[in-house]
User: What shape does this take?
Amino acid sequence: MKPAKGEQLTIALTKGRILSETLPLLAEAGVSPLESVEESRKLIFPTTMEGVSLVILRGSDVPTYVRHGAADVGVVGKDLLMESGDEGLYEVLDLEIARCRLMTAGTGQARTGHAAKIRVATKFVNVARAHYSSRGIQPNIIKLYGAMELAPIMDLADEIVDIVDTGNTLKANGMRPLEHIADISSRLIVNKASMRTRNHIIASLVERLGTAVASRRDA
Assistant: This one.
């Protein structure tokens, strides 16, 4: 089902690996950009479905655009949803793509004990604080936006909280995964107001994407 005449639906997509894995799923659901997203410097793209457009954003911005209604629907990693919360949006579908793990990592053993204090470098401030606090550890959180592995090497932090895929980057920097926090994959999120006002088109999109995800799982 496509939007009614004059109705617009905006889907916010996350740059990088998530984007490259999302586009084929959207194509199976009948939504494809009219020009190459990878080769263009544009940020907004009309699609093969009239009234539906794609906007390409940094992953951390996708929940914000959806939460405030600038985009109706979005695709974002579960890690960023855990960090930013779900206020103003619904998490409606696990797309089962861009799988990885959110973990603590360091050069030695994981620290435990109610009196323990630890310096933790991460961009996932809220997730890290909750994780360590649940173990009776008082974390001193140091917010970084990249190159987390440098923090223990440069004695800026004792441990890090970051996304781990193969673990090769950690190993190359003398570190190893310690504690598992969550399994991560990309999720389809919807603005709560849009779910009410455009339920017909959004429900149809969710159903078609769900079918595409299921067919891949069963292949």
In short: The domain at 9-98+185-218 is CATH 3.40.190.10 (D-Maltodextrin-Binding Protein; domain 2). Helices lie at 17-28, 62-67, 78-84, 125-133, 150-153, 168-172, 192-197, 199-218. The CA atoms of residues 121 and 160 lie 5 Å apart. The mean pLDDT is 91.
